[in-house]
Amino acid sequence: MTTNVDFGELQYGWELAYQHQDTEQPLWQEAAIPVIDDAIELLRSAGARSVVDLGCGDGRNLAALVAAGFSCMGVDIAPTGLAHARTTAQPAFLLRADATDIGLIDNSVDAVTCFDVFGQIQDPSSLVREARRILRPGGTLVVNAFTPEDGTYGEGEEIAPHTFAYKDTLFRYYDEDSVRELFSEWEITSLYRRSWDDPPHGDFRPYPHRHDNWIVLATPR
């Protein structure tokens, strides 16, 4: 398969998506994604207190983590997304940075979360390495990743197996073997699938759709 699409540019297309949204409405629905309740229980069970949310976007998931009582930092590359997060996810600390290189000191946080982002990273293994670097020994990582059964699979231009360029953004979908390979140096304590229906997202995805996800809870070995 040949393509002229630049993988590196696609992960920054979200800033344009946030800029084009109605300033009175979030790009996504206002509520956190349904898996957040599961994640909060998993983090509480692990004894986490400090959480870094990689790819926090407009803060809808970060706000739920703050409300649950965690001490939170949100990280995102898109300044417009972070501007929305400042109104929804206080008092979380917000940092504009690439989620694969955020500059925190080693072994400094209890938990890392990454929601609806794992498929938008050019090199997902680099995000996994960064999460491992900043986690304290015994720390917890919670992520979701779209499966090939997701309702958005196949939209846009296929630029690699299970990988599509859609409206200047990157969407990668994972089978179970791919997920396990990415976390081969981790202890996967929970891996399961969860589906939910999403409403339209403005002009970005202007119709209801169903998401099918892997939910991964892992700790570094």
TrEMBL record:
The keyword Transferase applies. It comes from the Bacteria. GO terms for molecular function: S-adenosylmethionine-dependent methyltransferase activity. GO terms for biological process: methylation. Keywords: Methyltransferase, Transferase. Residues 52-143 form the Methyltransferase type domain. Gene3D superfamilies: Vaccinia Virus protein VP39. This is SAM-dependent methyltransferase. It comes from Nocardiopsis gilva YIM 90087.
